[in-house]
Structures are given as structure tokens and as C-alpha cells.
Amino acid sequence: MVAKNILISSISSETKDGGGWVTRRILKIVPIDFLIVRGSQFSLKVIYAVFGIIAIPFLHPIFTRYIPLNIFSYLNENIYLNFSQTFSNTFFSKQCIVVCHDLQCHRRFIFTRWARWSERCVLNRARQVYVLSYRDAKIVRRYYGVPSSCIKNIGEALLCNIHSFNNEFIGPIRKVFFLGSLERLENYEGMVWFVKNVLPYCPLLKVKMVGKNNVKFIINHSQLEYLGFVNDLDSFIRNEDLMIAPMFSDAGIKIKVIESLERKIPVMGTKQAYSGLPIKPHNFCSNDSEKWIETLNTGGIYSI
Description:
Layout: E1 5-9, H1 18-29, E2 34-37, H2 42-55, E3 78-82, E4 96-99, H3 112-125, E5 128-131, H4 134-142, E6 151-153, H5 155-158, E7 166-170, E8 175-179, H6 185-197, E9 206-210, E10 224-228, H7 233-238, E11 242-245, H8 255-262, E12 267-269, H9 289-298, E13 299-303
Parallel strand pairs: 1-2, 1-3, 3-4, 4-5, 5-6, 8-9, 8-11, 9-10, 11-12
Antiparallel strand pairs: 7-13
């Protein structure tokens, strides 16, 4: 009897964020027979989180947040684990393929050593580890000791819709947006850097802030316009001139950058924003605030 392909995901393909985007791409890359998704209700998330802590208490909770209650029904199937919250399921089946979106070793946690030890455990128990970039493949191999034969880089499959294009900006760039929730630490820290080091020196610039807003994380500035979620993200992006991505986290690849480039909308980003991507556009990829100021005020040619 041929084993079925089961995808266990903590994030639905219907969500509008980067997690939903990657889940949709995984469903296109892998012939999935059955999809198991954690419910989005807060009460369900709490129940699964508590269950995970009780079931596997020695792992960091970031890896135990979603263990399906019927996991034992699928032990003889090929199980694809989508997002770190599902990776503890490797303790129930030896047929698990884990899909690493963001390696947790890059992030800051309470009990960081515990998180890294836990990540090493779950990755080495997997039959195969899918990563989204060559850099992440190298880290999984060198830092966590996973054999090269067990690592598969699926990054190119995610980038298949990015094609070469050129955009020329003459003078100050006007229609600029930022995509992402400021509740995420990397987004918040990046925008704080941008507001402090770049925005004061670009007086004609207005930045539209798109994504989940929480009053606790709002950065008040007269040149920032908070739109929240937009109904048609695709049309919104296509009508803008430039996306900014001031990000300084080394984790994963930045889905928002891919989404913009797929629509042939240039991205002004840091080196980390373009990390894992085979493109580094001149004048539009820099960690130097002076370069950002110059490009946003005077324009330039974006070419990939």
C-alpha cells in the first residue's frame, strides 16, 4: 500500500501573511493527499499549546504548539510538518519531513540555549529537512549536524515567479509602502531604525504601513500612514512604486520581498532583507542609512 502525503500545518493557506503564502507554495510543490491545519481560534491555540507542553515537556514550547490529537492515525504515512510549531511531531513518527521557514537559532528567546537544543533534536529526528535558502541549508548542516543527504533546498521553487525587470526612478520616490505587522520584533526594530536614521532626511517621503496594527506597537510619525489590512493586497502592491524592507534579522527568507518582486515592484532593503535570494540590486540593497537617503531622495535604476 502506497503511503499518503499528509501536511500538518500550524498556519492555514488562507491567511494573508507570509505564512499563508508559503503554505500555498508548499501545496503546489508537494502532492499532498490530506491537509491538517490548527484552528485559528485563540482558545484552540491555547488548548494545543497546553497539550504540547504536557506531551513533550522537555522541548521548548515553540516546537510543541501543534500536535494533532489524532497524530497516531498517520504514523505510517509521509508526514510534512509545516512551521516550527509542528516539529515536535517528529517524536511520534520517523517519516516526518520538516519545512523550515525561519530557523529558530536566529531568534531571541527566553531560554535561548533550550530553544537551540530543541531545534537540534527535532531536525535530527526528521527523515528530511526542507529549507528555503542555501544559507539555511549550510546552517542546518554545520550548526545542527544534519547530514547533507537529509537536507533539501526548495528555495528555487518558491522563486519561480520572479522574473528580470528594470525600473528607473527620476527624483524623489513617492509611492512607498511597508508590509508587515509591527508586533513582530524584526519588523518593529527595522522600522525604528528607518524612522530614526532615514525618514527625517527624506522630507517629501510618505510611507504607507500595511498589515496588522496594534496600538502598543504604533510608531508615531507624521510621515507614516497606517492602513491596516487592505482588501486586495495584489492590486495595492502593483499600484505602488517601491517597498521598503529595513530588516536586520538573519532568519529565513523574507516572503514580503518575494511578493513584491513577483509583481515587479522594486524593494529598498537591507542585506538581511535580501538574504537567501540570488539577487542584490545595486543601490537598493544596503545597511547604510546614507545610501537609503540618497536613493529615496534622488532615485536610481532598479535592475534584477
